[in-house]
């Protein structure tokens, strides 16, 4: 009976997630500016209404994130771009953000390429995880760390995170926020992975990120399907019920194999002031 309830709830959340994902509120255009490529990102006319409506919804779903209104969004993009890349961001008339173009392909696009060699797939995921860990080491967290929001440049061997419209709630602890980012990245990579490579993908991401406390928090998301944020999580990555279960099983096995850290053991990542 519980199994049936879990499946039914999961499919409802998948449908809800699809509806959430269909709500578009920004446009992004890549333009040439005197030979240099730039990205122009602007909110649509109805964006303030959608964001206002979404506020109570993300709270009811207990997602631990919120979508920033225009001015806070611009401010965050400026601060993050300055910390990450030392670049200052302009906003032109009509409140369009003009961002530097990041070379490469999104991790999502790379993983969806059926011609991509396995070793290159793994390198692309590794680069995205390394860039996420470096982002976290600055005391920042992303809030929507899905494979669509990171570009990987395989030629230079670097990845860059972008799209800073969603922010973690300040009430959540830093470890929780980091775990939420790793969860989003892991789920959106698994979504683009063949079932026979699922376990390898999960272990690769956690081995590269290397923080067992984060793994422990992340595992809670997959321990049971009957959780409030599931709709939002499936909007980020529409996993199948089988993949969701399999991730949960792999994570619990992994935790059994690694004993909990003692309270005086140092945390794997430094605790810097939060955003
Ligand atoms: N700085 C950048 N450099 C290169 N490409 C970018 C950059 N910013 C955005 N893009 C491209 O534009 C796409 C959409 O950008 P972004 O993720 O910021 O918007 P979004 O709000 O998620 O929009 P959508 O819902 O259409 O994906 C990305 O998938 C990426 O291909
Ligand atoms: Mg995006």
CATH superfamily: Transferase(Phosphotransferase) domain 1
Distance between the termini: 44 Å
* Ligand species: adenosine-5'-triphosphate, magnesium ion
What is the helix fraction of residues, given as a range? 40-55%
Q: Determine the number of helices (DSSP H or I, runs of at least 4 residues).
A: 10
- Total beta strand runs: 9
Q: Which CATH-level-2 architecture?
A: Orthogonal Bundle
Provide a descriptive summary of the structure in words:
The chain has one domain: Transferase(Phosphotransferase), domain 1 (Orthogonal Bundle). The protein is built from 10 helices and 9 strands. A hairpin with a 4-residue loop joins strand 7 (about 150-155) and strand 8 (about 160). The protein has helices spanning about 1-20, 45-60, 70-85, 105-110, 120-135, 175-190, 200-210, 210-225, 230-235, 240-255, and strands at about 25-35, 35-45, 65, 90, 95-100, 105, 150-155, 160, 165-170. A 4-stranded antiparallel β-sheet has the order 1-2-5-4, covered by helices on one side. The model has no long low-confidence stretch (mean pLDDT about 90). The structure holds adenosine-5'-triphosphate and magnesium ion (MG). The site of magnesium ion has 3 residues, from loops.
